[in-house]
Every structure is written in C-alpha cells, then in structure tokens.
Amino acid sequence: MGERRGGGGCCPPMDLFRSEPMQLVQVVIPVESAHLTVSYLGDLGLLQLKDLNADKSPFQRTYAAQIKRCGEMARKLRFFKEQMSKAGVVPSIKSTTLADSNVDDLETKLGELEAELVEINANGEKLQRAYSEMVEYKLVLQKVGEFFHSAHSIATAQHREIESQHTGEESVDTPLLRDQEMATDASKQMKLGFLCGLVPREKSMAFERILFRATRGNVFLKQAEIEEPVMDPASGEKVEKNIFLVFYSGERAKNKILKICEAFGANRYPFSEDLGKQAQMITEVMGRLSELKTTIDAGLAHRGNLLQTIGDQYEQWSRLVRKEKAIYHTLNMLSLDVTKKCLVAEGWCPVFATKQIQDALQRAAFDSNAQVGAIFQVLQTKELPPTYFRTNKFTSAFQEIVDAYGVARYQEANPGVYTIVTFPFLFAVMFGDWGHGICLLLASLMFIFREKKLSGQKLGDITEMTFGGRYVILMMAIFSIYTGLIYNEFFSVPFELFGPSAYACRDLSCRDATTVGLIKVRDTYPFGVDPAWHGTRSELPFLNSLKMKMSILLGVAQMNLGIILSYFNAKFFGNCINIWFQFIPQMIFLNSLFGYLSILVIVKWCTGSQADLYHIMIYMFLSPTDDLGENQLFPGQKTVQLVLLLLALISVPWMLLPKPFLLKKQHEERHRGNSYMPLETTEHSFQLETTPDAHGDHEEFEFSEIFVHQLIHTIEFVLGAVSNTASYLRLWALSLAHSELSSVFYEKVLLLAWGFNNVIILIVGIIIFIFATVGVLLVMETLSAFLHALRLHWVEFQNKFYEGNGYKFHPFSFALASDEDDF
Amino acid sequence: MGFVVTSLIFTVIGILASLCTRVFCNSGPSTNLLLVTLVITATVCCWMMWAIVYLAQMKPLIVPILTDGE
User: Fold this and answer.
1) pTM, whole model, 2 decimals?
2) Which of A53, A227, A490, B28 could be stapled to A435 by a disulfide with Cβ–Cβ 3.0 to 4.6 Å?
C-alpha cells in the first residue's frame, strides 16, 4: 500500500499531525573510534540501530567478553547495594558530573572494594562468634559457680551436722567408721567428673532423656534456665538456652556424653572447681569481652565508613557501568567489515537529525584521534520506517493514550492532535459539574507545581500514572468546569449566574405550579441549563431528551471528523481510489442518515414542533412514500427523505464493488511489462533477496482476498454507523449517573444532616459527604468517564480512518535506557 | 442575548485566543498551525455544547413542574 510519496500538497505541514520523515542510514565507523562514536550517538539519542548480527548467538558476538566484564562489575555493584541496604546506608542522589573515568580503573577499584568488604564481613563474623562464645562462657561460669558454691555450703553444713552428731559418741569403732567414710568419700570424689555448658531450651528435654538412656541413669544432670535469649555463635541468632551440669563417672560415660553434646549443638565450656581459679577465669572472660566489644565496634565503624564512601559514588558508578553495557550491546549489533578495520551500522534516524548525527560522528573521530572519519550515507529502501512524533511534556501524555491502542503507521494522520482537545471535552460532557471540576483542577495543579521535584523521585505505580497524566487531568478539569457551568451543577446545586431564570409561575398565586407547571416568560436562559429545572418533576424527561440529542449530535460530528481525516490520508498518499470509492460513499451514507437525523433534531428545536423523530426515521425506511402528516418539519420533507434514502442505498454498493476491480486493474497495469524482460527480473529478484528485509512490493495479488477485505470493511462501516452512533449515548448515560449520584449525596447526606440542627450530626454529615464525594465521584466517576471517553476515541473515532499498525521509533539513547532497566 | 449574538461572541473569543497563541507562543509555522488548530477545535466544541443546550430551551415542549412541598 502507499508508496511514500511525501505529499501534503493540499495543506501546510502541522506539528504532530504526521510522523517526522525518517530515513535509513548506513554509518561506517573505524574500529578505534567505535566506542567513542557509539557513546556520543547514545548521548544524542536520535538513531535507532538495527541488529545486523541477529543470527549470531550472544556468545559469538564480537564484544561478548566486554559485556561479561560489565556484567561482573554490575554484580559487584549489586553486592554493594545489598550490603548498603543491610547496613542502612542510602546512596546519595547528588549527580556529580561524570569526569570521564576510565572503565578499567573502575573495574580494579570495584574489585578492591569488594575484596575489602568481603574480608571485613568475614572478620566481623568471626569476632561476633567469639564474642557470643565469651558471653555464653561468662554465663556458665556464673551459674555453675553459684551452683557449686551453694552445693558446697550445703555439704559443709551437712558435714558439720554429722560431725556434731559424732562428737558426742565415744566408742572403739567410731574412728574406724570415720576413716572408712572419708576413705570411700575420697575414692568417690576422685572418680566423679562433670561437664557443663549451654543447650538450647527446646532441645533440653530430649537432651536429658537421651543422656539418661545412654548412660543408663548413671549421671546426675542439673539444668538452670537463662532468663534472656543468648546469641548463638553458630547461627548468629538469639536463642533461649539452658545451662546444664552433668556429673558422670567413668571414661565411657564421658565419651557418650561428649558425643551427645555435639549432636545437640550444646556448647561445652571448661570449669575448674578451685575457687581461686574460678575468680581468675571470670576476670579474664570479662576482660576479653570488653576487648572483643571494642574490636567489633571498631570493625563496624570501619565498615560503615567504607559503605558510606561507596554510597557517595554508587550512583555515578552504576550509571557508568550501565552506559558501558549499553555501548557494548550496541557495538554487538554492528557488523564487522571483512577487513576487520571498520564496523558497519544501519539504522533509522529522522531527517532533521542528519546534521546533528554527522556532527557527533566528526567529534568522535576527532576525539579518538582516528586517522579516518566515519562515513554517513542515506540508503533507499521500501521498508516501513518507524513512527516518530516529537512530543513535549504536554502532548506526550495524549500521544501515549493514542499509542496504547496502536502506534500510527508511518506518516498517517495522527489522531493525537484532535485527542488533545476532544478527549478532555468528551470526559467533561460525562462529568459536568463545576464544583468537582475545581477539585480536579486543584489536584492537577498540585502535581504540576511540584513537577520538578516529583520527576526526580521514584513514585509508586498509581502515583506514577497520575503524575504522568497531570496535563490530561488539567485539561479534563478545565473542560469540566465549562460543562459544569453549562449543566448548571455545583455539587448538584444550580445557580442563577447568567441572568434571571426564564420560567415563572403562570399567575401570582402559583397554584398550578405543581400540576401544570411554570411557563416561559422571558428569553431563554443565556448560558446553560435554566436553574428552574432542578428538583422539578419534569427535570429528568427534559434533561434526558436534551442529553441524548446532544450525544447524537456530538457523535455525528466526531465521526464526520474521522472520515474527513481519512480523506486527508488518502490525499497525502495519493490514493485516488480511496477518495472516490471510500471517502465519498462513506460521507454520503453517514450524513444522509445520521446527519439528516441531526438536522431534524435542530429543526425541531428551532421550530418547537411536536413531531416524533423516532416515527419519522423509522417510517423513512419502512414506508418512505407515505404522507408525513403532523410529523412534517419543513416543506418538501418527503422528497428530501426519498432522495436521501436512495443516496444511502446507492452508496453501499459504491463502497463495496468498484474498489477491488480497480485495484486489480491497477496491479495489472503496474506489472504488465514484467514478463517481457526475464533477465532483468531475475537480477532484480536476486537483489531483492540479498537485502534482508525485502518486502512490500510483493507481486502477489489475490483478488478474492481483496474482495473479502472490502466486503468486511463495507459491512463494518454500514453496521457500525448505527452502532457507533448509538454508542455515543454513553455520554448521556454517564452524565445522568454523575448528576444523580451527586444530587443524592447532596440531598440525602448534607441536607439531611443540616436538618437535625445538631452540630455533631452536621460535622459527621459533612465528613461522610466529603468522603463519598471524593471516593465515588472524584475517583470512581473520573476513572469511569476517562475509560468511556477513551473507548469512544479508540473505537468510534479511530475506526473511521486509523490503521495503527506502525512501530514506534526507539532510538539508542542513554537517557531512555537508564529509565528502563535496573541492571 | 440571542443565539446569533452569542455565537458571534464565541467566534470572536476563538479568533482572539488564536491570535494570543500566535503572539505568545510563537515557535515555527508548523507548531503555530498545531496550536491554532487546537484552539479552534476547543472553541468549536465549546460552542457546539452551548448552542445545543440553548437551542433545546428556545421553544420548550415541556415545562418545569414543581414537586409538592416546595
């Protein structure tokens, strides 16, 4: 379809209306300046490179090793980031200018820092482990010392008792018994050994049981709980532990106990019975504890400093590494020339950027002291270029809305231009309330005034979307204020802002006001809906009729705009067939039916006739020759209707039949001479094969396919004319919903609370009113109206002219790349 | 104030707004054309909405009937 005949001869060029003209360029770069060239091109951000090595795997590419290096550096930076977040250090965001630091230097530096950090971490862990062990040892010494002390005092007390008992008696055999006792005591004392240590509380019962079973009950186990949890040296977490003290006799029992202790992870500590030694041990342990504490603190401080210095430079380094990675990925896309002395790059760039790119190439060649400069050359191709719109911060949001449905085909009319105005306008038609509009305006202004600050921060998902659409919301708010003034609704309350109401009672007593109603005594209320309507019984019939007819009128207008844009497209691409056999019959069909309906609506309003428009439209089709009777709105209506009906009927085959036949004839004419020059065609076809993306002009023409395509298009248009027009009634539906919700909240919450004459109830009522308004009307209704306005644009407006099967221009740019990936 | 007069007022406002954009935000002919298009589209949309509401109230077929107790 469409040769790129840059037409536009009918109208002067308009920004944003069509894609910037793009060209396919080829750049030949000498290898020594390749890195610098790509770096400068990345700063410029106006060239989209094609991957010329698409068939190679990532490992076969030229610069795979450098990418691996960058990957290593990225890994080290990730490690630093992890350590920093664990230590609670935040990398500073101050962006110091990158003093072109060498990548090799950075690599060595990162390596050193990593080694240092790993060493500090390992040492820290060891020290921490030793510290925990010391703490445990101290606890053991204290508790076991206590136990022995108390046991000793009990024993001496008992001993003294026994002695005092024995001193009274004087018999022959008493000394013998005493000696025997002492002798047996001594021997028993020599064989009884003990072990002490700490065991985790949860395992203490099992520990006791297994000890008992393993030694057949020949041990004495004493356990005491430690109140606070203790840091376990092995796992580094706080665990609740018990101190245990095991008395055993014999070597075998000792070995069994040792093994069981190991199995349960119970740490054993040496303990001497000698009081003097105990005291010495305790002082030693205290000394060591304080030593370790200072060492650990010093270590942590050192680590903190190191992480702080890393944190200062982190952003810079990560930017540099990302940049390097991007450069090497791009370099991998270039193909290496046979001589291995230069790289060839192919890519798309906008025509206006030619000078800038050439400048960048020259600068790179100069800065890298290359002997030869880069060669820049424009290629001719039939490939479809990418679409590029130069948007600013205001228009980019609207363009994104359009692109979300489909990116415009290269150089077709961009609906984004009209969307900037019609989207907020249709939103406002559904939202119309100037009180709510003011709230939206304040919200959007809040975002816009803090633009600079917020654009640097990282926001949450929803806030990010709202911030990105701040100008859309601003436009929506401004139009909502306008439509709110027209619908005369301020939180559903009407005001007489533009003059007196046109309605008044029929007579001074106003007797008939509730039965027959008021009458129109003055001129029409000059701007908007008359305030007299609000709250009356006939408000809804009047407003419904008004809003439905308004929706139809707005819808027909927008659809006509869409068809006219298709005319401009056809004119631009020089497609006469589309003008005569698509644009004209479409206009005729839509306007002879729905344009006529719109005119009838306006005539009925202007004349105040009581004609029934449903009746007119339906019987226009069912019995067009019948007399109109009281439904006549203007003289000659019957003939006009007959003519319009005939026009509509002819336009359907006019849309359907001629175009496929004409396309076939065109195709035959274009390729009539081909069969007579076999040699040239084969050469031509070889050339087509060598250029990797040869497509577009393929000499295949399936008539049946084209015919079916045109049939579908015709049916879609004809049926769509009815359904799309009806679809615009959603403007009425949402506007009704909004005003009903608004009036319910006002009357049933605020007025009700007011009626009680109680301050507390009034405050509660106000709070409920605010929450309901914000939650339902400002958030939910906004989203709802946004969505429906979006649908009206995407479907009803764009299906009249938009193809939307292009692809977006995605240049190689560091600014864009840093937004996307996070390593 | 009459339909025609107010429509003329809308036209005048539209022309004034386009002239203002031409004066205050002058940046190249194509950008100017875009801005003028936007202003004209906005004016036409606003005028259409006003005109529809005005025309619908010129010769009404139903009149407000007050509710009881008002």
Assistant:
1) 0.82
2) A490
